[in-house]
Amino acid sequence: MSATLKLAVGSLIVGALVLALKALAWWLTGSVALLSDALESTVNVATAIAALVAIQVAAKPADATHPFGHHKAEFFSAVLEGVMIVIAALLILKEAYHGFTAPRSITAPVEGLLLNGGATVLNGIWAWVLVTRGRALRSPALVADGRHLFTDVLTSGGVALGIVLALVTGWWVLDPLMATLVAVNILWSGWKVITQSLSGLMDEAVPDEDLTRIREVISEHGGGAVEAHDLRTRHAGRATFIEFHLVVPGEMSVFDAHEICDRLEAALHHAIDGAQVTIHVEPEHKCKHSGIVVLD
Question: Residue 74's closest CA among 144, 147, 151, 152?
Answer without folding.
Answer: 144
